[in-house]
Amino acid sequence: MNRLEEILRVKRAEIGRLRARAKELERQALQRNDFRDFRSALRQSDDKLGVIAELKKASPSAGVIAESFDPIEIAKDYERGGINAISVLTDAQFFQGKLQDLADVRRVVSVPLLRKDFIRDEIQIAESAANGADAILLIVAALEQKELLDLLDAAATYRLDALVEVHTREELNRALGAGAKIIGINNRNLATFDVDLAVTEELCREVPDDVIFVSESGIKTPQDIARMKACGVDAVLVGEALMRGEVSIEQLRAVI
Predict the structure, then answer these.
(1) Which of 26, 165, 171, 240 is catalytic?
(2) For 23-59, how does the pLDDT look when each residue is reduced to its tens digit (9 = 90+)?
(3) Least packed by Cβ within 10 Å: which of 59, 63, 193, 220?
(4) Catalytic hit among 128, 186, 187, 215
(5) Neighbours of 250 (CB within 10 A)
(6) Rounded distance, CA 58 to CA 52, Å?
(7) Which of 127, 217, 220, 240 is catalytic?
(8) Is residue 217 annotated as part of the catalytic site, yes or no?
(9) Residue 216 appears among annotated catalytic residues
(10) Which residue is catalytic, options 11, 57, 84, 116?
């Protein structure tokens, strides 16, 4: 079993438990009227890159990244640094995240929030909206095409943007065919967790100009930012390097 399959097996069980709360979550999600525009936040009018800063305590590949993890204070620091959006990892078993982190961060920052988890079912989208997300992550490698289409429709129903994540040309074509408006090229292979920034470089010319284009994973230095900027990306998602203190928002801002 590869890494992604292992995670999805756990998610199926989580979704099963979540169904008992379906009506409550749908009601809460549909009552929201305080959405922040994630898509617009990523495309800067002055030719600078948007930055999605991630809150991530741990990962399956790196183990614990931040021993002292205070998502509220970190999110405040991110916003003071001038980031455009915040990604909140909510998976508990593999990333030591919490859904409560999303709701807590929502109360202390004004930038859009992306819920980063392994979304496989509409009830997870309702749950995301009910807990303060402005956008969700949809991973093409984890979804059949009909599932992807259905989840994009559900995101629209709950007024959430969707960052549709791809790693290969085939996945990119599937995302575009499904009508994705925001595409994230993940430099990490989710089957092996190997990372290579060349993935963005190989796929960047295939992304249409009217689609918001994000590069994710493995971006650790100002040089990496410059490399991604040369590909024409609209935004970058940076997590582990920020969490470890290997790079600061100010250092990233100096080159974007």
Answers:
(1) 165
(2) 999 999 999 999 999 999 998 766 788 999 999 988 8
(3) 63
(4) 186
(5) 9
(6) 18
(7) 217
(8) yes
(9) yes
(10) 116
Q: What is the predicted pLDDT for the residue at 21? A: 93
Beta strands at 161-166 and 85-89: parallel, antiparallel or unpaired: unpaired
For the question of residue 122 being annotated catalytic, the response is: no
- Catalytic one among 56, 171, 187, 189? 56
Amino acid letter for position 33:
N
Whose tokens are 């990233």? That residue is 252
In DSSP terms, 54 is beta-bridged to 87
- Looking at residue 173, its amino acid is N
- Answer yes or no: 56 catalytic: yes
* Euclidean distance between CA atoms 94 and 6, whole angstroms: 10
Q: pLDDT band at residue 2, thresholds of 50, 70 and 90? A: confident
Beta strand 63-64 pairing with 135-139: unpaired
89 SS3 class: strand
Residue at token pair 């990892």: 89
pLDDT digits (tens, 9 = 90+) for 175-187: 999 999 999 999 9
Which of 42-46, 119-123, 128-132, 167-171 bottoms out in mean pLDDT, i.e. has the lowest? Answer: 42-46
Q: Is residue 141 predicted with pLDDT exceeding 70?
A: yes
Nearest-CA neighbor of 190 among 2, 9, 1? Answer: 2
pLDDT tens-place string over residues 55-111: 998 887 777 877 788 999 999 999 999 999 999 999 989 899 999 999 999 999 999
Contacts of residue 74, defined as CB under 8 A and 6 or more positions apart, other chains included, come to 55, 243
